[in-house]
């Protein structure tokens, strides 16, 4: 059974930093691209970042480029999102999401974690 | 960036009704559209990929159609568990992957 378990969400002040983790199990982790998708309170879904199975290719939404860094440790089956220079508009539930069929490309998300809450406020 | 516009924003229907949800892309995305269902407090669930392919375990009452810029998600006969928010998503041109604003299917 595929499982994705996010952790690391917290209340942080504007300008602060946070690192999210997503522990994966139930599938060959290094064979799939992975993503972070967020959802602000009462709003829709926003893709944040994704990376290839090897971690060699990374992609970002313009809204987070230069502030967030996605990475993975395939030996630990874990996905990360390092978030720096956080802003109020980064407040959201952050979901880890598995790519449906690709190791290199970002297409669709067939499994999602339960989400972790990030709140940026003074 | 490809913008996806979903309509209507809210659809009020009764169990057993047919639901027709629309997603329009700002430019052609071929058939590279997916649909997700999200219930309150839960993560989204993939229903349809590449416009018309049901994801694993998705009931046959869910179907997708369309190509180019206009897409439809149809629920042939609404079950009580189908009342939720539905999002479309494109993978034609990325980054970024983009989602529509969602359609809420609520009980009439």
Report on this structure.
- The complex is a heterodimer of chains A (122) and B (108).
- Chain A has no helices and eleven strands.
- Chain A has strands at residues 3-7, 11-12, 18-25, 34-39, 45-51, 58-60, 68-73, 78-83, 92-99, 109-112, 116-120.
- Chain A is globular, with a radius of gyration of 13 Å.
- In chain A, 44% of the residues are buried.
- The model of chain A has no long low-confidence stretch (mean pLDDT 97).
- Chain B is mainly beta and 108 residues long.
- In chain B, 0% of the residues lie in helices and 49% in strands.
- Chain B has no helices and eleven strands.
- In chain B, strand 5 and strand 6 (53-54) form a beta hairpin.
- The A-B interface holds A 35, 44-47, 50, 59-62, 95, 100, 106-110, 112-115 and B 32, 34, 36, 38, 43-46, 49, 55-56, 87, 89, 91, 94-102.
Inertia-based shape of chain A:
globular
Percent strand of chain B:
over 45%
Q: Into which percent range does the helicity of residues of chain B fall? A: under 10%
Q: What Rg of chain B do the Cα atoms give? A: 13 Å
Key descriptive features of the protein:
heterodimer; A: 122 residues; mainly beta; seven-stranded mixed β-sheet; four-stranded antiparallel β-sheet; globular; B: 108 residues; 11 strands; 49% strand
SSE layout and pairings?
The complex is a heterodimer of chains A (122) and B (108).
Chain A (H helix, E strand, L loop, with lengths): L2 E5 L3 E2 L5 E8 L8 E6 L5 E7 L6 E3 L7 E6 L4 E6 L8 E8 L9 E4 L3 E5 L2
Parallel strand pairs in A: 2-11
Antiparallel strand pairs in A: 1-3, 3-8, 4-5, 4-9, 5-6, 7-8, 9-10, 9-11
Chain B lengths: L3 E4 L2 E4 L5 E7 L7 E6 L6 E5 L3 E2 L7 E6 L2 E6 L9 E6 L7 E2 L3 E5 L1
Parallel strand pairs in B: 2-11
Antiparallel strand pairs in B: 1-3, 3-8, 4-5, 4-9, 5-6, 7-8, 9-10, 9-11
Please outline what is shown here.
With 122 residues, chain A is an all-beta fold. Chain A has no helices and eleven strands.
């Amino acid at each position: 059974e595929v499982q994705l378990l996010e952790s690391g969400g917290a209340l942080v002040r504007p300008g602060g930093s946070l690192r999210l983790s997503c522990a994966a199990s139930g599938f060959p982790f290094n064979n799939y691209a992975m993503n972070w998708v967020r959802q602000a309170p009462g709003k829709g879904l926003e893709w944040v970042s994704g990376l290839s199975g090897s971690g060699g290719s990374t992609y970002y939404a313009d809204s987070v480029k230069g502030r967030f860094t996605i990475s993975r440790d395939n030996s630990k089956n874990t996905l990360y999102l390092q978030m720096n220079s956080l802003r109020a508009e980064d407040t959201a539930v952050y979901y880890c999401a598995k790519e449906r069929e690709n190791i290199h490309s970002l297409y669709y998300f067939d499994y999602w974690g339960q989400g972790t809450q990030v709140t940026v406020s003074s | 960036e490809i913008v996806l516009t979903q309509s209507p924003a809210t659809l009020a229907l009764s169990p057993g009704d047919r639901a027709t949800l629309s997603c329009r892309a700002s430019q052609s995305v071929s058939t590279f559209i997916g649909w997700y269902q999200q219930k309150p407090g839960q993560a989204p669930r993939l229903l349809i990929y590449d416009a018309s392919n049901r994801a694993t375990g998705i009931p046959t009452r869910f179907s997708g159609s369309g190509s180019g810029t206009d897409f439809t998600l149809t629920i042939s006969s609404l079950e009580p568990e189908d009342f939720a928010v539905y999002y479309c998503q494109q993978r034609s041109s990325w980054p970024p992957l983009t989602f529509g604003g969602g359609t809420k299917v609520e009980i009439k």
